Amino acid sequence: MKAENEMGDTLTTRNAVDPPAGTKDHPGAISRPLRLAVVVTHPIQYFGPMFRCLARRPEIELTVLYASLQGAQPYKDTGFDRVIAWDVPLLEGYRHKVLRNYGSERLGAFLRYATPEIVWELKRGRYDAVMVFGWGHAAAWLAFAGARWARIPFMLYGDSVPLYEGEIGGPKRLVKTFVLRRLFGRAGAFLATGTLNRLFYASYGVPAHKCFDVPLAVDNEFFRNTAENARKHRADLRARYGLKPDAVVILFVGKLVPGKRPRDLLAVLKNLQPDFPQLAVAFAGDGELRRYLEAEIAQDSLKNAFLLGFVNQSKLPEVYALSDIFVMPSMFDNRGVVVNEAMACSLPVVVTDKTGVWGPGDIVVEGHNGFVYSAGDTDELTRLVRKLVVDSRLREEMGARSLEIVQRQGYNDCVNGILRALYFVKGWPAPSPGVPAGDPAFQIVLTTGPISGGQRSRRNSN
Prior knowledge:
The protein has helices at 47-56, 117-124, 138-150, 170-186, 195-203, 220-231, 234-241, 263-272, 290-299, 316-321, 338-344, 378-390, 392-406, 411-426, 453-460, and strands at 3-4, 10-11, 34-40, 60-66, 75-77, 82-84, 96-98, 129-133, 154-158, 189-192, 211-213, 248-253, 279-284, 305-309, 325-328, 349-352, 370-373.
């Protein structure tokens, strides 16, 4: 079957696999698994479980194409400012190939991953579709070229949000708009990670019916179960880190870098500790700001401020379990999956309006399981944290709602969204509906400046 996309290109992709044979009882049956290629730069701790779930589905024959094994092997992480070796399996349970990478970090971010072999791999592999993570590196654009040559559809999976679009101006904005509109016009489907990600695509003219919900997820069961077990020994766990049994602990998890604004939590501690001497702040992470945090803690004689250092994946649930409130004070964070982790461990969450995790239908709901505040406004953050510090029942109720919400954002939801997108790009009846054209997320009016609490509340009530 031939068809034209929005850019006028003729595509012959719908007959790469025979349509579902189907029966009266099973109208969606297919004659053989769909051969799906996934292009990603390197193994990432959150993606391994999703790939294993995909590989277990009989409808899909999965091959993940990596440009590098960084992550599965120890490497120097510039953000954490140390060598990282993840302690969870990243390559087990699914088929993968490592392509030769001609890129280098010395050549800049775009050319860090450059794998010309991917063009031939997509042709000779006789794939039915390719799923590409992002478009900010050469390997992705080589995958787009390979998909075009092999005449197979590609699906985009990214976490871009429109919150920072106003910061790009002049010729750079014009070039970006031209390039992305051309690219998006050729994409077969878009795997949306959240409300603001869908809004980003909509701002470049992507129709709603081409977007399918595929959240950036974590292993909810692992985090929930491990945290529940850890809470049985909470006093001992706190003692291990030097925390008092009756402390109310605010937790930061991530790289100690300026864009994450960890120092804002020290400001909150200074503001509230005179009234709440049991208040504590714990930082689970490492990075260039560590020495500045240590100096500020010493200079101001702050009590109950703890730098836990880098905490690996298998131990993170324990850190969430010893905490009471999770705060993500980032100035720039498209999709901080540490919020998912905290929610899976039943914590109330406080995030900035410069993160991509809030909005109608997303995981942080104002006043329900947490709060959203203007990035950099430590007075507003202090006020919201105070609400949670004084009300243990509110913390417990919001934490329970966090767990309830995030359980609808698991790996099975990712797989189901990918399957719906695959059926869509093949022109087959969907196994279940995709994102409806009337999705209320598309009715939000975007702003590029700071967002007031009132605006957030109105948006989250849609």
